Amino acid sequence: MIRARSAPWALAMAALMAVGCEGATTATGPTRAALVPTSPLSRTREEPFRAAQIPREPRREWTPPTVVQWTLRNGMPVYFLPRRGSGLVSFEYINRRAGNRDNRTGPTLPWIFALMLGRGTLSRPSTRHADELASFGAELSTRCYASGLYTSVSVEPRSAARAATLLADAIVAPDLSESEFRRARERLFAARMSFSGSVAAHEIALWALFEPTHALARPEAGTASEINAVTHAELLSFARQRIVPAHSGLSVAGDIDEATLRAALDESFGRWTVEGSTAIDRAPRHTPPPRRARAWTVYDRDLAEDNAEVLVAYPLPALLDQDFAPALLLDYIVGAASGRINRTLREQQNITYGAHSLLNINLQGGFGIASTTVREELVPEAIDGIFDGIERLRRRPPSRAELEAARERARGDFFAGFESVSNLAEIGATLFAYELGTDSWTRHLTAIDAVTPAAVQHVALEYLSPDRVAVAIIGDAAAFARPLVTVARTNLVFVTHRP
What we know:
Blueprint: H1 14-19, H2 40-51, E1 68-71, E2 77-82, E3 89-95, H3 108-116, H4 128-134, E4 141-145, E5 148-155, H5 160-172, H6 178-193, H7 197-209, H8 224-229, H9 232-242, E6 248-254, H10 258-268, E7 296-300, E8 307-316, H11 324-335, H12 340-348, E9 355-362, E10 365-375, H13 379-395, H14 400-416, H15 421-433, H16 439-450, H17 453-463, E11 470-475, H18 481-484, E12 492-495
Parallel strand pairs: 2-6, 7-11, 7-12
Antiparallel strand pairs: 1-2, 3-5, 3-6, 4-5, 8-10, 8-11, 9-10
Helix pairs in contact: 3-6, 3-9, 5-10, 11-14, 11-17, 12-13, 13-17
């Protein structure tokens, strides 16, 4: 559910939407002996391979995709990214006032509405809507992010007009009856209660990192009590105020000519009007995180095989902040599969199969979470290893070679995000969601190319201060609590449930 969205172009929506979080295995942590080479011979045989220089590929030349823009008769903007010969057309509806990080509505209402989409409409009750989509091999996909509510469908070109009609029907006239509302609320509650301990640990880390009123401190879909407290009347009010043309946009990518697309969208979405609706101002773009994390937290819960999961959360600059590009490369240097933390814990300390990081940056702010799984008795050692990777970057900027490797990986992930038709449609949607121009893509690459070692160190000094970092551990507290006190840099809070 967490998707990274960053700047100057929403972290090249491409890069982090396509890649999500960095590679890294989530396997349970081995004993230290399991990762120690069994003989000097095996290590010797690896050395020539490790020392070999891999030829560097020439820098990729990139041409931004064509974007055709127009406005429907009801004022909805359309972003069309043609890709002839792809054999696919992808539609993306975006509502930028129905995101799950707006404190004015809370996170629960957008998710309940999202779950109700495609479950039936006023003209196509029950499963008829889904059955019609399935008749030509399609289905709706709806997601809630900080930037808004996204609903998409991908079809063959011959079915594009029908897909546009069914997508519009789902958005314009969903079945918001009380019975459907209750089903959606029950589904969301069940999903909430089935969250793994790992998800709970992420939530607790963010709860400790941000102030309680900060949008990023709240669970993405709300707490169990918030879900149960939402009423049908609140859902109807949310839909009336938020799901209107004034807050909506469309992005379409793929194998369709412009004239055919214009006709299909004018017939489907162009007729949509809502009397008396007024535009709602965007939520505040940036709420700075506190200068000090509230606590280190221990989620006291037994995991299988005597393992514990360790998460270190740290604040990052918000979307469109001038420090975004250095923060992105910092994450590659510190938290990527080839980053410092993974090398320290896996290759030097031999206490885990891997460590990775997740980056999430949006309008209200941003954060990174580095995590790993280790044996319970190795929790203090793992925390020391993670902090060592962070502290070394604060003391000394990265080498130019290390920075260049991170830069090339960031560029590669950016380009990869443009490869599929569905990603291309979502990229167009982010132009509307973040009010960006198509030049933001080239500006993103320019910003990445301009990052210096000193700029990365500046972000590390500003955002990765030990006082601002929050640690969350999930596992049997009795196995590691006492030695953990010796490495804790703030107060410890033990919890047995999610905040």
